[in-house]
Design goal:
- This protein is an alpha+beta fold and 213 residues long.
- The protein has one domain: Roll (Pnp Oxidase, Chain A).
- 31% of the residues lie in helices and 30% in strands.
- It contains six helices and eight strands.
- It has an eight-stranded antiparallel sheet.
- Helix 5 runs antiparallel to helix 6.
- The longest helix has 16 residues.
């Protein structure tokens, strides 16, 4: 991802927030027969406060990616959407696409079977905790045989990124008044309405003005 200093996102806390809110990630590596991409849930490592992430791939994707042996890129995609130049008022402008994206790259560490199982259990907890009552949250069965067979079909990994590229392209190059107009349009009812993108733009605008998000 090409970086532009005007759109660079360098605050680790903000990068962590984007990763936490958008765990469905794309894993890209250069395999023996060319580029390969897979899609998996990837979480922040809850034992660290940096940008280390953990996840798993299903077998044989570990072999396809050469997991643990070569560099992998993990891409997280936050809110994104079309921005019409008609929202800018009577000025010369062109369409664009606003987005928030995070790329982490490096050579991942392969987790032990026990560590992988803990990651799988945490993934279940993270998403099942959002389930409403009365059913409550689903948990892994108290059946060691079943759980071990489930875990055996996956390979867990931990990535301490050697390189981080994070980009928040949210009309920061436009006057604040124009940003406000775009936010209003995104919060409306038109075909490109996107409240989540509007919220990210408001957050970036407030940071630009020195206000707390």
């Amino acid at each position: 991802m090409r970086q532009n200093p005007s759109f660079a996102m360098t605050d680790p806390a903000e990068i962590r927030r984007i990763i936490e809110l958008n765990p469905w990630a794309t894993l890209v590596s250069h395999a023996d027969d060319g580029l390969v991409a897979s899609h998996y849930v990837v979480l922040l490592d809850d034992e660290r406060d940096d940008l280390t992430v953990v996840g798993h791939v299903g077998r044989p994707d570990d072999l396809v990616h050469g997991l643990g042996e070569r560099e992998i890129l993990i891409a997280f995609q936050g809110p994104h959407g079309y921005i019409s130049p008609g929202w800018y008022g009577d000025v010369q402008a062109v369409p664009t696409w606003n987005h928030v994206s995070v790329h982490l790259s490096g050579v991942p560490e392969i987790l032990s079977a026990d560590e992988n199982l803990r990651v799988l259990e945490r993934m279940v907890d993270v998403f099942e905790n959002r389930m409403p009552s009365p059913r409550g949250m689903w948990q892994l069965p108290n059946d060691d045989g079943f759980v071990n067979r489930l875990a055996a079909g996956t390979v867990g990994f931990r990535l301490r990124p050697a390189k981080v590229v994070a980009k928040r392209k949210l009309s920061q190059n436009k006057p604040v008044e124009t940003v406000d107009e775009v936010i209003t349009a995104l919060e409306g009812t038109g075909p490109y309405a996107d409240p989540a993108l509007a919220a990210e733009m408001r957050r970036a605008r407030d940071a630009r003005q020195g206000r707390s998000a």
